[in-house]
Amino acid sequence: MPSDGGAILLGGANQILSLTGTLELRPPGDHFSIRVEYRHDGSDSDAPLFFKRGFAANGQQLLAAAQNTLTLGVTGWF
Length: 78
Fold this sequence. Notes:
Layout: H1 5-9, E1 16-25, E2 32-43, E3 50-55, E4 61-64, E5 66-76
Antiparallel strand pairs: 1-2, 2-5, 3-4
């Protein structure tokens, strides 16, 4: 039986993994915070879930089994 996104999300034989690490800086007396977040998402190599650059010779979007993201955020309040 071919695997599909539904099987993964409903607890099929395939596995997905997500790890996140966040650092926050709040200067004393100021009303803002700065956050840097690193995230790694992965799936079984038999069922890649993430887009990567380029297309295959047949025109289909290439997929990867993992992706990494880095985010910088600033939040202010008053």
